[in-house]
Amino acid sequence: MPIYEFKCPNGTITEKFVKIGTKEIKCPKCHQKAKKILSRCIFELKGGGWYSDGYSSRKTGGEQDA
């Protein structure tokens, strides 16, 4: 089960660990319906390893690293 963000009509944003199909929850502050919102992705590739190890789309089949 992933963590999603929900926003109520009063503007309270809540993170909740719920099933994938969950579209709304009850806000813990005002007890109104809070709808699922689209939040920023925190996935980030850092460093040069993943790129220089052969995952580049520019690399052709005949090239080899020395």
Tell me what the structure shows:
This protein is mostly beta strands. It has one helix and four strands, in the order ββββα. The radius of gyration is 21 Å and the shape is elongated.
User: Helix tally?
Assistant: 1
Task: Enter the CATH topology name of one domain.
Answer: Rubrerythrin, domain 2
Distance between the termini: 44 Å
Percent strand equals 25-35%
**Uncertain residue segments:** none
Rg over C-alpha atoms, rounded to the nearest angstrom: 21 Å
Helix/strand order: EEEEH
Give the SSE layout.
Layout (H helix, E strand, L loop, with lengths): L2 E5 L5 E5 L6 E3 L6 E5 L11 H7 L11
Throw out a few tags for this protein.
66 residues, four-stranded antiparallel sheet, 1 helix, elongated
Summarize the structure.
With 66 residues, the protein is mainly beta.
